[in-house]
Amino acid sequence: MEARLDLFGNQVAVKVLKYITSAHHVVAKSKLPDATAELMRLRASQINGCAFCVDMHTKEALHAGETPVRLSLVAAWREATVFTDAERAALELTEEGTRIADAAGGVPDEVWARVAKHYDEEEQAAMVGLIAIINAFNRINVISQLPHAGDYHAGQVLL
């Protein structure tokens, strides 16, 4: 597959990516646990079919110490016993926030209540930002057909 757009050679695309990456840094510096953040990024990327981001976040999570078993079960987290209640709430929010168009009322109050049970307001704000940001990256990559899924190495993209 050949990319439709050179994301790093187009002035507008570079500026857009710069601002999205800047927002990513705000989330990364929050107190939201890194492991939870990577699980959330991976799940949104799976839903959106962004092969580059699935590859990237799987490898980044492995590099950070995540287990292959947990990573292989992210897509089936509801049936898996390897995630904490807090992680399950984060994954549920990620799914609801990524599939927001599928629900007429947006993210259900019950989902938010489960998140609020485990995460404080700073972490909640980071989660909302993370979901918006990873969905933006996913959409940019999928629309432009960013190739090279499978070639990513941990630390390759320093967001």
Structure description:
There is one protein chain. The chain is globular, with a radius of gyration of 15 Å. Helix 5 (85-98) runs antiparallel to helix 6 and helix 5 crosses helix 7. It has helices at residues 11-28, 34-48, 51-63, 68-72, 85-98, 109-118, 121-144. It is mainly alpha-helical and 159 residues long. The chain has a single domain (11-144), classed as AhpD-like (Up-down Bundle).
CATH-scheme architecture: Up-down Bundle
CATH superfamily: AhpD-like
Shape: globular
Give the helix level as a range of percent.
Answer: 55-70%
Structural class: mainly alpha
Would you report the number of β strands? 0
Major sheet: size, sense and barrel closure? none
Strand content: under 5%
CATH class: Mainly Alpha
Q: Any idea how many domains?
A: 1
> How far apart are the termini?
24 Å
Radius of gyration: 15 Å
Order of secondary-structure elements: HHHHHHH
CATH names the topology as AhpD-like
Mean pLDDT: 91
Number of helices in the DSSP assignment: 7
Taking pLDDT < 50 over at least 5 consecutive residues as the criterion, the unreliable ranges are none
